[in-house]
Amino acid sequence: MREKSFAQNYIFNLIYQIVAIALPLVTTPYLSRVLGADGIGQYSFAQSIVSYFALAAALGTTMYGQRQIAKVKSDSQARSQLFFEIFIFRFLGVALACLVYCLAIMPHVNFPLLYAVAAIEILTVALDITWFYQGVEDFGIIAIGTTLGRLVAMICVFCFVKTKEDLVLYVCLYCASILLGNLLSFLGLRRYLVRPKGVRLRILLHLLPALALFASQFAIQVYTVLDKTMIGLITGSDFENGYYEQSQKLIKVLIALVTSLGAVMASRVAVLWNTDRKKEVYPLLYGSFRLVFALGLPMAAGVALILSRFVPIFYGGGFEPVIPIIMVLVFMFPILGCSNVIGIQYLVPTGREKWLTISVLCGAGVNVILNLFFIRQWQAMGAALASVMAELVVTTVQFVVVRKEVKIRPVIGLLLRYGLFTAVMGAVGYGIGRIAPGGALGIACIVLPCVAIYGLLLLVTRDPVFQIFLKRRTKEATVAPGERQEARLSNDRENSDEGKA
Fold first, then answer.
1. Phi then psi for 479, rounded to 5 degrees?
2. Which of 68, 70, 91, 443 has the fewest CB atoms in 10 Å of its CB?
3. CB neighbour list of residue 492: distance below 8 Å, 6 or more residues apart
4. How far apart are CA 83 and CA 134, in angstroms?
5. What is the Cα 286 distance to its own chain's centre?
6. Taking phi first (over 0 means left), then psi (-120 to 50 degrees means alpha), and beta for anything else, what does residue 379 get?
7. Burial of 122 by CB count in 10 Å (0-12 exposed, 13-18 middle, 19+ buried)?
8. What sections of 403-480 are H helices per DSSP?
């Protein structure tokens, strides 16, 4: 089995993450004008309900499957047996989730057709095998399948969704694009699978370990999706849900740029950790932190600088309340990026998902409590504030958990370094913004100099982020000397502890 390089996998996974979120974003200006904030809000609330059942159908097997496949990626027999066991396990979970959805939800909704069509998303879980390709570190097939599926859906949206009455049709096209992408990914399975010989499929063997990860994924869902549910229940306003949904679409695209390294790193860390090459893990983690701050901080500042000009052009009239919501949510970029490094790239592949679960449950609890007060006071804006605070709690708990392995001082050093670069860029952008014209021309006048200045700062200081994808230097180029020393001390301490044990 030929392995793709780390850089190739990162690029393919970046394409997958962006396409999965960005192509739907391409249709956002059109749908904002056709369906309106209330129509989008109706779908947002329905989709938030469906997502709980889709998550329950997968039952934690997305991260669990990726990790387990990574452990046996070089053994064709073990790899094939594990694939069939987890695939059948997910299929059974989908069947159960659909049954419960039909009995518990469908009889009580006021728009049955919308909720029935939205439920197709639950069915797509059965055919989603991205976890397998992530485990074998082949992100190309995922990117191709997702891109083709979303492109077809995007074309169909522009061709067939014309009025507010086409809301159900839009939902159908969205779910069909996911289904098509999943089906296309099956075309690459043949070169990875063989027929298991003389073995019994142990499907239920995966129940308890998958449940351990399900708890964390469910908690994550609480403060990423429950916001929409609580906005709908507390405010009773489709418009507020529409504003929040449109804010999230833009934010998710940018967050994908910050966290897209996560799936690639998780597979690599799992392989290194399980082949007694633990010393190679920590330089990679510090490199991930570098990338998080190098991308997340300037993106947050850049969005804040152009938002007042961007929203009227992109979303159209009537979506002005989106501006303050996005201004709050941009703080998620560096915070969520750090939690992705520790939780997804380190705790899960090293078999310590219980700490990820604990951290996420802490954040989920904070999010629910704050939502009860903030949404009543500030509607969708309150939900945004609660989400940022909840994510900060998650990241803080994770740093406390790994404080003896991942030193905070090098991370703070990276934060200050790129924070300074971002401040210089932001000051220039703010000054230009005060005299720049409105509309698209004004956006260009702000963005282009900011990108040039930030890039120049990285170039002049010979920042290691430029070398992060060089195949032979990935492990060292992203780590400054001080950080490398911290990583060595951490590893020596770990080896010493193991020797004592």
1. -120, 120
2. 91
3. none
4. 12
5. 20
6. left
7. buried
8. 408-435, 439-460, 474-477
The residue type at 205:
L
Q: CA 31, CA 493: separation in Å to the nearest integer?
A: 55
Residue 367 structure tokens: 């999010």
Q: With contact defined as beta carbons under 8 Å apart, do 345 and 262 qualify?
A: yes
| Spatial separation of the C-alpha atoms in residues 119 and 172, rounded to whole Å | 10
- Using the structure block, give the residue that is written with the tokens 């639950």: 122
The answer to whether 286 and 485 have CB atoms below 8 angstroms apart is no
pLDDT digit string, tens, across residues 111-168:
899 999 999 999 999 999 988 988 887 777 777 887 888 888 889 999 999 999 999 9
- Other Cβ atoms less than 10 A from the Cβ of 318: the count is 16
Distance between CA atoms of 352 and 451, rounded to whole angstroms?
A: 39
pLDDT 10s digits, 249-307: 888 878 877 776 655 666 677 677 777 777 777 888 888 898 889 989 999 999 999 99
Task: 270-277: list long-range contacts, CB under 8 Å, 24+ apart.
Answer: 270/66, 270/67, 270/70, 270/71, 270/349, 270/350, 271/70, 271/71, 271/73, 271/137, 273/349, 273/350, 273/351, 274/70, 274/71
One-letter amino acid identity for 75? D
Q: CA-CA distances (angstroms) from residue 202 to 136, 181, 361, 463?
A: 21, 28, 30, 50
15, pLDDT greater than 90: no
Closest by Cα among 84, 49, 52, 89 to 69:
84
Tokens of 281: 């893990």
Q: For the chain, what is the mean pLDDT?
A: 83
Rounded CA-CA distance 364/266 in Å is 23
Going 141 to 144 to 150 to 152, the CA torsion angle's sign is: negative
Residue 299 neighbours by CB under 8 Å, 6+ apart: 254, 257, 258, 330, 333
Higher-scoring residue by pLDDT: 248, 5: 248
Cα–Cα distance measured from residue 314 to residue 238, given in angstroms and rounded to the nearest whole number? 20
* Contact criterion met (CB below 8 Å) for 336 and 255: yes
Direct distance between the N- and C-terminal alpha carbons of the chain, in angstroms, rounded to an integer: 37
